[in-house]
Design goal:
- The structure holds four protein chains of four kinds.
- By secondary structure, chain B is α/β, with parallel strands linked by helices.
- Chain B has helices at residues 19-28, 50-58, 79-96, 114-131, 136-156, 160-174, and strands at residues 10-15, 37-42, 63-68, 104-108.
- In chain B, helix 1 crosses helix 4 (114-131) and helix 5 runs antiparallel to helix 6 (160-174).
- The two termini of chain B are 22 Å apart.
- A four-stranded parallel β-sheet of chain C has the order 2-1-3-4, sandwiched between helices. A four-stranded parallel β-sheet of chain C has the order 6-5-7-8, with helices on both faces.
- In chain C, helix 4 packs across helix 5 (96-108) and helix 10 (202-218) packs across helix 12 (239-246).
- The longest helix of chain C has 18 residues, at 52-69.
- The two termini of chain C are 31 Å apart.
- Chain D is mostly helical.
- Chain D contains twelve helices and no strands.
- In chain D, helix 8 (116-131) crosses helix 9 (136-146).
- Chain D is globular.
- Classes of the chains: A alpha/beta, B alpha/beta, C alpha/beta, D mainly alpha.
- Chains in contact: A-B, A-C, A-D, C-D.
- At the C-D interface, helix 2, helix 3, helix 4, helix 5 and helix 9 of C face helix 6, helix 7, helix 8, helix 9 and helix 11 of D.
Chain lengths: 666, 175, 290, 199
């Protein structure tokens, strides 16, 4: 590789990209190129339609050869998008790739301004800054760091399960951490899945068992990630394993202990059946739970809470001795190279919309409650009944509960239309009831979804377009006595209707998990304003985050259905594998270094480094930076009183010259 | 120098992970804001050396905007806490120099807050516009003149009326 | 405790029983109400229909007088006045063009308004400033066995649900419970009473009043409690017309302050109870005469 | 014979700029984001009497159908209970839009004839302008005279009741500094045309 250290003889090539109409529409590219051509050191200045295209890149390569360029500046889009592309082009032209500087005149200029003259002036100023800066660039080498091939998957819903299995099948070791006692997530609660109406358990359970059986997967249920340190390729993660009071290795899931518990009947709301049934302090979340072992609820178990119990469960367990009240919370440290976060969503609390009467009227239920009612292993063994045991004659399903509402959640939860139509079909299948769906817009954009809508219509399900105003129990007409009455404008018919119902189902939308902010901080991710984890790019990097080596999949990134969650999980697994199989991480050479002669040994930099990359050599009385540990934030550089710490790619001269450039009158 | 065509010039230092990305998002979302801000990208707001700010003002900027991740969200853990500390110290210095607080701002803007980039920039441009040109290069020359004057007049021992006059300006701004 | 007091036209007219009961109750609670000097009509809903800026000017005169009077919160018992004055405050704060008009008008009368005076409803003051504990101490004749349907109406909680929930307010429920009354579950507590439509379009307006009355009767209430003179009028004065149209739904409607007065042992005749067209039945245990 | 009527609307029926004018009124800005969900009509206690539901009024305003909106009974049936405003998922202040429409209708004189509500509003306006306060009895009397004095006969029993309970005031309530109020109102009125000009 040819290097050119001499700053005296800089030969700069400047290129401004039209980006079709994106830049050229607001910035006079030719004028900028002309202006730049006159600046000292600029040998070539061109404007071109698409710099990132092959011919655009070829232009750079050619000019480097023909005009002996030793610096290149491209003014186009954000460096976060194409810096890499152009550095490669520069390298292909035979120059060190770091003799390159990029100017963002699309995202930061043409797209955000509406005054052509001002936008052009800004482009000139930014270009000026880059040309001044690039003069000080030096040849740098990227460093390679080996990658730890194991992967951590956080969250054992369908997304986490799929990601873990994909990686494990490719031979990668996976740690799957799930907060609840069993994996399965929300999908395990569903009866059927749209639009095919195949049974959720039938397609999920085999995957859950596969997780348990897989030699490459370490499953830690009832556990949470407590701490994450390190960076892509080399994360150190501390996992908190909550005491289950049952030894997972010894328990065979015979459930004798549950029968043996001092509580003769279930007394506490069963989480899996959303409170529609009761469980004991010792319980198994659901029959197909993985791991198929019981768990003791520390808040309910007499022994754990008070230490005073006959411990009849121990007798029931007999010589298996799986129950262990001495278990303590455990912290385990693991090393992984990549992390996939698939922590899912939380259902909107329907009580927040009091006009729908959830919590006030017993026969107002949520969609997930109906899901459990219709499930044959649910609390009513698959019977859809009212609280008094009668089958409903009329069921109303209200969509967009908590969604598309500025006062609660602005977004569309994306799955409720299809989910509700599925429930409507199941209600029709199981009962004689008339079903009416109250909707604002039916959103059925997936494969086979519109057909599913059509099927719902053909099955006689009524659709009323209107957002329900209220659910009340007061009658104004004889047919309303003893019923729940929906008041709604039938917007297609153009009048207000009162419609008596036996049962009302609320399609509560999706929300970010309550602890999304903590989780986000834990993994150094960003959140959108709504609280969903933010992807690196909404189109081109949908499962990546701004932290390398941390990927997101499933509903933690935004509401989505099962097919989309699974697709994202696969994508996240593939992204992780791409890094693992490459074998190393190429590090941006933006590390700090010390000009030893200038160091005065004041030690003020040492405590500043979050990566402990700065050590103090007592013998020499000088600070020393371990560049392998340095992540390139530059905090120490700004703090060094003697100016002896410098940063590659962000040298003081480079920034000062940039300041000068942006302030140059044009 | 009250030029009718005067436009505020603001230099911004944005951290790569949050605010720079937010500015990209503002672009992708086609939000429109004032064209007076020129962004310089740094990896972390912690890299912002107070000298950068002073240098920008000295070279003719009317304002400086620093954008970083929200406290607790720094890509590097706590770089932005260092920024705050330096910023607060620098602010005291700037006040002593008679430079208004509104001219040098530190803002936390996360990667998803494209809208905030727009409001902060528009807001700041308006505030700086209202304050008028800072014109530090010219002022420095004035101060230099004043100092030499003072030195000379001290030598001559008299001539207090002339010396007191120009000194009033920075003092008033300081108050 | 001292408050500025804006009675509004209704409390001097059809709703005078509201003032007649509010004043002695507040006095018992040691609250001083200073009636605004030369206050004028707030403009109500009618003025807004003609000209919004003028409506704000009209209301702003009262706010300006209140600001001049002193640093006290302004109590407005009438729901419409409460809403209009609050709305004016918001409009002045949110819309510079309205603010400019208002300030210009005020300066013509040598008045000014800076937006400081909070506009409060008696319910808010009673429960949040004075407190249920203090009120409880003053109760000498608990309203035992009296089933009351709490009716808030629209404009006290909407659109500025400042001191209570817009959908399911509970302030009056708690106050009634403190008085010893039995609070009837009344889900229509914030439904419209018909407003001024009872007079202008009786078919529509009176039906709303009827639904409220009928449902209160059906739920076993002895009496409905209100906090608004217009609600009171609609629920009290139209029983003839209502029963002619849809059948009887006879139930007395009284102001919450009248119930408080009774519980405090103030004689009924001093509380304006005789002004009801549908009289409230005497309290069973403690023989209060009506 | 069945009477038929053409209901089609032509572009010429629209009054361009009407939507923009209404959305420019303080409080009415949000109308742009209406998604026609019908929550307003569903919550409205009076929508059952309206010729256009509140939702339809929103659609008509947004599409510049000025004449249709101002002629409709809907705005006059609005009792200002603010239920729609509180419930709207897009935070559109529907009640305020109704006010804006009432003001336009009164200003332009397009409202249903002999319809008591606009008359009430105007009478109210005038009485306040004169006296500074409202005397309900006198207001109602004037209203009946102007619209349907026949109906006044129907409510004689109510009047008697009110008289018996001492709630009818026949002396007009007045404020003292009526000149002050008049000065304020005229100042506001003079600047009303161009509110942006501030002294």
């Amino acid at each position: 590789m040819k290097t050119n250290q001499s700053n005296g003889d800089v030969r700069i090539g400047f290129y401004i990209c039209h980006c079709g109409h994106n830049i050229a529409g607001m910035v006079d590219c030719a004028a900028v190129a002309q202006y730049m051509a006159k600046l000292p050191g600029v040998v070539v200045s061109r404007d071109y339609k698409y710099m990132c295209s092959d011919p655009g890149q070829e232009l750079i390569r050619q000019d480097i050869r023909e005009h002996q360029l030793n610096r290149v500046v491209v003014a186009s889009c954000s460096p976060l998008l194409h810096e890499h592309t152009f550095r490669k082009a520069v390298a292909a032209g035979g120059l060190n790739p770091f003799y390159f500087q990029m100017v963002n005149i699309r995202e930061h200029d043409s797209w955000v301004h509406s005054d052509r003259a001002a936008a052009t002036a800004k482009a000139k100023a930014l270009g000026n800054a880059a040309v001044r800066r690039v003069r000080f660039h030096r040849a740098l080498e990227t460093t390679r760091v080996a990658i730890q091939p194991d992967v951590l998957v956080v969250g054992g819903g369908i997304a986490g399960i799929h990601a873990a299995l994909t990686l494990a099948n490719a031979g990668k070791k996976v740690f799957l951490v799930e907060r609840e006692p069993s994996i399965g997530g929300h999908m395990a609660q569903f009866d059927k899945t749209f639009p095919t109406l195949d049974c959720a358990a039938c397609i999920l359970t085999p995957k859950m068992s596969a997780v348990r059986a897989h030699e490459n997967i370490t499953l830690w249920s009832y556990s949470e990630v407590a701490k994450v340190e390190g960076y892509v390729g080399n994360y150190t993660v501390t996992v908190k394993r909550k005491p289950r009071y049952v030894n997972e290795e010894l328990c065979v899931g015979c459930l004798e202990c549950i029968a043996g518990c001092v509580f003769k009947e279930g007394k506490f709301p069963d989480e899996f059946n959303v409170g529609l049934s009761k469980r004991k302090p010792i319980y198994i979340p659901f029959p197909q739970a993985v791991p198929p072992v019981v768990v003791i609820d520390p808040e309910r178990c007499l022994q754990v809470r008070t230490g005073k119990c006959k411990k009849t469960c121990l007798e029931a367990c007999a010589d298996r001795k799986a129950i262990d009240f001495t278990q303590k919370e455990e912290l385990v440290e693991i090393k992984v190279g990549n992390i996939i976060v698939a922590t899912g969503f939380k259902l909107f609390d329907a009580k927040r919309i009091p006009q729908y009467g959830y919590g006030l009227y017993p026969n107002v239920v949520t969609a997930i409650e109906l899901e459990r009612l219709v499930n044959s292993s649910g609390p009513t063994a698959g019977e859809i009944v009212l609280r008094d045991g009668r089958p409903p004659k009329s069921v109303g399903i209200i969509l967009c509960v908590g969604s598309r509402d500025v006062k609660t959640n602005r977004w569309c939860s994306r799955t409720c239309c299809m989910h509700s139509m599925k429930l409507a079909q199941l209600v029709r299948e199981h009962t004689e009831a008339d079903v009416t769906v109250f909707y604002m817009d039916i959103r059925a954009p997936g494969k086979g979804y519109e057909e599913f809508y059509d099927k719902s219509l053909k099955e006689g399900i009524q659709f009323v377009r209107g957002r329900v105003a209220e659910v009340t129990d007061w009658a104004l007409a004889p047919e309303e006595e003893g019923k729940l009455v929906i008041r709604v404008e039938d917007t297609l018919a153009g009048f207000v209707r009162r419609m008596p119902m036996d049962m009302i189902v609320l399609a509560a939308g999706m929300e970010p998990q309550e602890d999304a902010q903590q989780v986000r901080r834990l993994f150094n991710m960003s959140c959108g304003t709504e609280g969903w984890f933010l992807e690196k790019h909404p189109k081109l990097a949908p499962v990546s985050t701004f932290t390398d080596g941390v990927f997101i999949a499933g509903c933690c990134q935004g509401p989505k259905d099962i097919p989309d969650s699974v697709a994202q999980a696969g994508a996240a697994a593939a992204e992780a594998m791409a890094l693992i199989d490459k074998g190393y991480i190429e590090q941006e050479p933006n590390t700090a270094y010390i000009v030893e002669a200038d160091c005065c040994g004041c030690k003020s930099c040492v405590p500043l480094c979050p990566y402990k990359a700065i050590a103090f050599e007592e013998a020499k009385q000088k600070a020393r930076i371990n560049e392998a540990l340095c992540k390139g934030c530059g905090t120490c550089v700004a703090a060094c009183p003697s100016g002896s710490i410098r940063q590659n790619l962000f040298e003081d001269e480079e920034i000062f010259s940039e300041i000068e450039g942006v302030l140059a009158y044009v | 120098m009250s030029d009718a065509n005067w436009q505020p010039r603001i230099v911004a230092f944005f951290c790569n992970w949050c605010t720079y990305t937010a500015a990209d998002l503002a672009g992708v979302s086609r939000l429109k804001y004032a064209p007076n801000v020129r962004v310089i990208r740094l990896m972390c707001s912690g890299r912002v050396d107070p000298q950068f700010i002073l240098d920008a003002l000295a070279k003719g900027a009317d304002g400086v905007l620093i954008g970083g991740c929200h406290l607790g969200d720094c890509h590097y853990g706590e770089g932005n806490y260092k920024t705050v500390r330096r910023f607060q110290m620098l602010q005291r210095l700037l006040r002593d120099m008679g430079i208004e607080d509104q001219r040098v701002r530190l803002e936390w803007i996360s990667a998803s807050e494209g809208e905030r980039v727009k409001t902060v920039i528009n807001d700041m441009v308006e505030q700086v516009r209202a304050l008028g040109p800072l014109n530090l290069p010219q002022r420095r020359q004035d101060w230099d003149c004043e100092m030499t004057h003072l030195a000379e007049s001290a030598g001559e021992s008299a001539g207090e009326s002339e010396a007191a006059e120009p000194r009033a300006e920075p003092e008033a701004a300081h108050a | 405790m001292k408050y500025s007091y804006f009675p509004g036209c209704s409390l001097k007219g059809l709703g005078r029983a509201y003032e007649e009961s509010l004043l002695p109750v507040m006095e018992r609670l040691g609250v001083e109400l200073v009636e605004l000097d030369d206050w004028n009509c707030c403009g109500a809903t009618a003025y807004m229909s003609v000209d919004e800026a003028m409506a704000c000017v009209l209301a702003a005169r009262n706010l300006a007088i209140a600001e001049k009077t002193g640093p006290h919160d302004l109590i407005t018992p009438c729901a419409a006045c409460y809403l209009v004055l609050n709305k004016t405050k918001h409009n002045i704060a949110d819309y510079p063009e309205i603010n400019a008009t208002v300030q210009r008008a005020l300066s013509n009368a040598h008045l000014s308004y800076s937006g400081k005076v909070p506009v409060r409803h008696p319910l808010d003051v009673l429960v949040n400033d004075i407190g249920l504990d203090v009120i409880k101490e003053k109760v000498v004749r608990p309203l035992k066995g009296l089933k009351v349907a709490p009716y808030y109406g629209c404009q006290v909680v909407r659109p500025y649900a400042t001191f209570d929930d817009a959908w399911n307010p509970t302030t009056m429920d708690r106050l009634l419970a403190t008085l010893g009354a039995e609070v009837v579950h009344f889900p229509l507590k914030t439904k419209c009473c018909g407003g001024s439509l009872t007079g202008t379009v009786p078919e529509a307006g009176l039906r709303l009043a009827y639904i409220l009355l009928k449902e209160a009767v059906r739920r076993g209430a002895d009496v409905m409690a209100t906090v608004c003179p217009l609600c009171h009028f609609n629920l009290d004065a139209y029983h003839d017309q209502i029963s002619r149209r849809w059948g009887p739904a006879r139930i007395a409607t009284v102001y919450i302050t009248q119930l408080m007065g009774l519980a405090f042992g103030i004689p009924a005749e001093q509380l304006g109870l005789k002004r009801n067209m549908v009289p409230m039945k005497p309290l069973a245990a403690a023989a209060t005469t009506v | 014979m069945m009477r038929i009527e053409r209901t089609i609307k032509y572009e010429g029926d629209r009054v361009r700029g009407f939507a923009k004018e209404i959305m420019g009124v303080p409080g009415c800005e949000q109308l742009q984001s209406c998604i026609q969900c019908g929550t307003c009509s569903g919550t409205c206690p009076l929508s059952i009497y309206m010729d256009f539901s509140p939702r339809q009024v929103m659609a008509l305003v947004r599409a510049d159908f000025k004449n249709e909106v101002l002629r409709s009974h809907t705005v006059w049936l609005c009792a200002s209970c603010y239920a729609c405003t509180v419930e709207c998922p897009r935070q559109i202040r529907i009640t305020d839009i109704m006010y804006a429409l009432k003001q336009r209708a009164i200003k332009e004189g397009i409202y249903p004839r002999r319809f008591p509500i606009p008359v009430l509003a105007k009478e109210f306006f005038e009485m306040v302008r004169r006296n500074g306060r409202i005397t309900e009895t006198l207001l109602v009397a004037r209203l009946f005279l102007k619209t349907n004095w026949f109906a006044a006969l129907g409510s004689w029993r109510q009047g008697l009741g009110l008289m018996r309970t001492g709630r009818l005031g026949v002396w007009p309530e007045r404020i003292q500094r009526r000149a002050e109020l008049a000065a304020m109102l005229s100042a506001a009125e003079s600047g009303n045309g161009k509110p942006k000009e501030t002294p």
